[in-house]
Amino acid sequence: MDTYFNPEDLEQFGNLGEDTPELWNKFMEYYGASMAxxxxxxxxxxxxxxxxxxxxQCPYCIDSYTQALLEMGxxxxxxxxxxxxxxxxxxxTTMAHSLIMKNIVNKLEF
Amino acid sequence: xKDGKEYLDELKDFPxxxxxxxxxxxxxxxxxxxxxxxxxGKLCNLHCKHCHIQAGPDRTELMDKAxxxxxxxxxxxxxxxxxxxxGGAPEMNPNTPYLIEKATEAGAHVIVRSNLVILExxxxxxxxxxYVKNKVELFASLPSYAKRxxxxxxxxxxxxxxxxxxxxxxxxxxxxxxxLQLNLxxxxxxxxxxxxxxxxxxxxxxxLGSEFGIKFNNLFAITNNPIGRFGxxxxxxxxxxxxxxxxxxxxxxxAVENMxxxxxxxxxxxxxxxxxxFNLALGLPANVxxxxxxxxxTKLEKRKIVFxxxxxxxxxxxxxxxxxxxxxx
Lengths: 110, 329
Description:
Number of helices of chain A: 4
Order of helices and strands of chain A: HHHH
Distance between the termini of chain A: 56 Å
CATH architecture of chain B: Alpha-Beta Barrel
Largest sheet of chain A: none
Number of strands of chain A: 0
Number of strands of chain B: 8
Structural class of chain A: mainly alpha
CATH superfamily of chain A: AhpD-like
Strand content of chain B: 5-15%
Strand order of the largest sheet of chain B: 6-5-4-3-2-1-7-8
Shape of chain A: extended
CATH class of chain B: Alpha Beta
Number of domains of chain B: 1
Oligomer: heterodimer
Largest sheet of chain B: 8 strands, mixed
Order of helices and strands of chain B: HHEHEHEHEHHEHEHHHEEHH
Shape of chain B: globular
């Protein structure tokens, strides 16, 4: 193992159930049901999944969901817009968290 | 430009399509064939990035009238139903109006695969009336409802030209009247598989309808074949192996039974007969006893289809043919 992240490992994802098949099957069933068409379309869910993948910085998920979005007919422009939503949310949560800092400063200073 | 053999050699590095169970079960044509696809030439006004034929303005191959006559004779003799005219840009062969006329006289349902951009050229605008008169079913490539993505694949300005031409065709009744069918063809703008055809059709109808007020009948999603210009792109961009894996992992046995090659022959500009337009691009002739000009008095028999690993493109996911998907995913 030369690197922690290896693109070819993605193909091994399905083998993660070898050691704990019961839990793995439950996870896969839940995962599949969560991503299927419902009140939201599978495409909308894939865009959310992509945004989460970016925010959590998972290269495997970014790879998978980028490909999945293209295969769902989502345009490049739409994927970039989803990227900006993620970026804006990350910036927004940073700003929102600064309220904690502000409250502490206000409490501590004269 | 690479020849077919080079693409076939590269494809040998992958598990053999011919060894798949479904490929073996359905390796022959049907008893009776419905479709005669005729490639009237490689000359084209466009130079699309996905073109397996590698058509373009620099190509010179064009079918002559004698070969067209032979096609019509074989069509009649064997009870074909449809003549599916493709290219290049079929309009750029000066004999295409002759072929359409003869095909219509022979009772064929005639399809022309047009890039539509060519019809904006005053020299070729006459085809609009020829299509209307002969009730030709049109298949037009439009790989995206977004200008940026469509132009990236087919060339700057092609999207606007196609939209403009669809407006004109709608005025003539195409996409509106039942006997003037106008179908759009989607293919992915890169190394990935097409989306669900039905969902995409609805999306196209909504976007093109609301933005441009244009109408069409069907939308067909076609998978890019890893040969020709698209094959070159895969190699150049480092996507070749990944794309082949994607096709092979998505092999759908249910898509094999309805592969288009089982119900057609494909005739090249010079009369050579192939199982499909991809085999034509690769120079893999069909198991028939000679050139179309030698077959005018021959009853075509059931034949073994010439499969190779590029056929994975027609069996991935929901399957792919010149008429769109062929199976449930």
